[in-house]
């Protein structure tokens, strides 16, 4: 009997250690399981919130398309942005719609905020859009408040900056004025952009005696760094 008691006393620490190890292993397994569940829930939450934001943005675009500000004589193709500029000097995006949806080269691209750019290359299921901030872009524009006309183009100092050029020194332009597309037409010739699409607001106005034109800086209404969905304006009656 004393031997049995001694044996029990010797064996108990090993049993306790085995039980502790088993409990520890079980706790670790349960912890890993909980971590995976938390990660899955977090991923699901992110996906749900992202989907909700995308749906809300699409609803806003569709409301713009169906609203009074949408240009007449144009149909719309609402599409996703699937490729962004790799650098600040590559002012182009790729969209997930092309000729199969009726899109052609030189179709204007907008958001509900304003002008984005122009389709410059197109395939059956995708297109390249050159942004308004690209060095090659130039848009006939006017000051809504005064009617002063000029050309919106890329600014030299900042890749994302815009200026309103070719505005006479006597024209009335003030800070905060809204700049819109002019949408001119002369006989059978017409602007690539319809009239009245917002471009930006006047940020600063300056001029010097030696200048032929005013120096007008524009703050774009479109945030070109966060484009996710856009609207392509497709003319209902294309020129032959």
Explain what the structure shows.
By secondary structure, the chain is α+β, with helices and mostly antiparallel strands. It folds into 3 domains: 1-67; 74-133 and 225-235, Rod shape-determining protein MreC, domain 1 (Thrombin, subunit H, Beta Barrel); 138-222, Beta Barrel (Thrombin, subunit H). 27% of the residues lie in helices and 32% in strands. The chain is built from 1 helix and 14 strands; from the N terminus they run αββββββββββββββ. The chain has one helix at 2-65, and strands spanning 74-83, 92-95, 108-110, 115-122, 127-131, 138-143, 149-154, 162-165, 178-181, 185-186, 189-190, 198-206, 215-220, 229-235. The chain has a 6-stranded antiparallel β-barrel with strand order 1-2-5-4-3-14. The longest helix has 64 residues, at 2-65. The chain is elongated, with a radius of gyration of 31 Å.
The name of the CATH superfamily of the largest domain reads Rod shape-determining protein MreC, domain 2
**What topology, given as strand order, has the largest sheet?**
1-2-5-4-3-14
Residue fraction in strands: 25-35%
Tally of alpha and pi helices? 1
> What number is the mean pLDDT?
83
Give the number of DSSP strands: 14
Task: Name the structural class.
Answer: alpha+beta
At CATH level 2, the architecture of the largest domain is Beta Barrel
End-to-end gap: 111 Å
Shape: elongated
Residues in helix, %: 25-40%
Compact description:
The chain has 240 residues and is of the alpha+beta class.
Topology:
Layout: H1 2-65, E1 74-83, E2 92-95, E3 108-110, E4 115-122, E5 127-131, E6 138-143, E7 149-154, E8 162-165, E9 178-181, E10 185-186, E11 189-190, E12 198-206, E13 215-220, E14 229-235
Antiparallel strand pairs: 1-2, 1-14, 2-5, 3-4, 3-14, 4-5, 6-7, 6-9, 7-8, 8-13, 9-12, 10-11, 12-13
